[in-house]
Write a structure and sequence with these properties.
The chain folds into 2 domains: 99 residues, Nucleotidyltransferase, domain 5, CATH 3.30.420.40; 192 residues, Exopolyphosphatase. Domain 2 (Nucleotidyltransferase, domain 5, 2-Layer Sandwich), CATH 3.30.420. A hairpin with a 4-residue loop joins strand 6 and strand 7. The chain starts with a strand and ends in a 5-residue tail after the last helix. Helix 7 crosses helix 13. The protein is of the alpha/beta class. InterPro entries: ATPase_NBD, GppA/Ppx_hydrolase, Ppx_GppA_N. It holds the Pfam family Ppx-GppA. This is Exopolyphosphatase.
Length: 313
């Protein structure tokens, strides 16, 4: 079975066998959400890029014998007036009926995927905050692993692409632009905190998506992606702030040369790092635990659970 995630910045695939073993996990930066914050429409070239990658993924799924799949679109599709055109093209490319997830559903699936394999001591320690920093939105979910029905979730329109297009397009961004972006992020996350249960200081904040993975690689000197060097690694709030300052002071060309910078990430990493830094500050957390298990794993888990559900009313 397979899960496909069409996000604002990247398009991703996860295929597992019937026992849940991972057969392939792929990510390609397609920037589906290019300009959506301003135009409220998906650009034709962005649709074309994303659908081309979906065709590649469909071929991989066929090769691996996938018979069941979920294809989810998130923030960019939620915002776009012409999302139906993309969904039709995605369905034709993959043979899978696509769905646009609500922000809360996205957050809950991310929580399900990120917490299923948490170390036992963290899973038992109390509520976990999962922060999924996407291109157009950030999803926050708080709950206890294994208790999905009790998870509280919020989605906010803060993402690395959206913030870059709104505030940080100058290369490098000015201090005034960074200050304005930071004030916006803090205000929105503070509002989210008012409606979410809050883990105790020193609790567990699990960070998902490319921003978090890239910051861990930069901080740990991992110049080529290796899952074991990123998954369940911690990055402190101080390290996040340090890398935010460093990257914000560099032009995009210099960021691309940083050992560990993921391809397609350099122009939006400052916006993503800013969201993570403020999430740590607003929720009073000292560190972020990076997880390479996320909404894709949640989508696959939902397929496995539906398969296991007894027939009948």
């Amino acid at each position: 079975m397979a899960a496909l995630d069409c996000g604002t910045n990247s398009t991703r695939l996860l295929v597992v066998d019937e026992d849940g073993r991972v057969l392939t996990r792929r990510m390609t930066v397609t920037r589906l959400g290019q300009g959506v914050d301003r135009t409220r429409r998906l650009a034709p070239e962005a649709i074309e890029r994303t659908v081309a990658v979906l065709r590649q993924y469909a071929a991989e799924m066929a090769r691996l014998g996938v018979t069941r799949a979920r294809l989810a679109a998130t923030s960019a599709a939620r915002d776009a007036e012409n999302a139906a055109a993309f969904l039709a093209a995605a369905a034709e490319a993959t043979g899978v009926d696509p769905e646009i997830l609500s922000g809360e559903d996205e957050a809950r699936l991310s929580f399900l995927g990120a917490t299923a394999q948490l170390p036992p001591d963290l899973a038992a320690a109390g509520p976990v905050l999962v922060v999924d920093i996407g291109g157009g939105s950030t999803e926050l979910a708080v709950g206890r692993p294994g208790e999905p029905d009790a998870v509280r979730a919020v989605s906010v329109d803060l993402g690395c692409v959206r913030l870059t297009e709104r505030f940080l397009a100058e290369d490098p961004p000015s201090a005034a632009a960074l200050g304005a972006a930071r004030a916006e992020v803090r205000a929105v996350l503070s509002t989210a905190r008012e409606v979410l249960p809050t883990p105790a200081p020193g609790g567990t904040l699990v960070g998902l998506a490319g921003t978090v993975s890239t910051l861990v690689m930069l901080a740990r000197g991992v110049d080529h992606y290796r899952r074991e060097r990123v998954h369940h690694q911690r990055i402190s709030r101080q390290e996040v702030e340090s890398w935010l300052a460093r990257l914000a002071g560099e032009p995009v060309a210099a960021r691309r040369r940083e050992p560990g910078m993921v391809e397609g990430r350099a122009d939006v990493i400052v916006g993503g790092a800013l969201v993570l830094a403020e999430a740590l500050a607003v929720f009073d957390q000292a560190a972020c635990l990076a997880s390479e298990e996320d909404i894709l794993d949640g989508l696959v888990a939902s397929l496995r659970r539906s398969q296991a559900r007894p027939a009948g009313p």
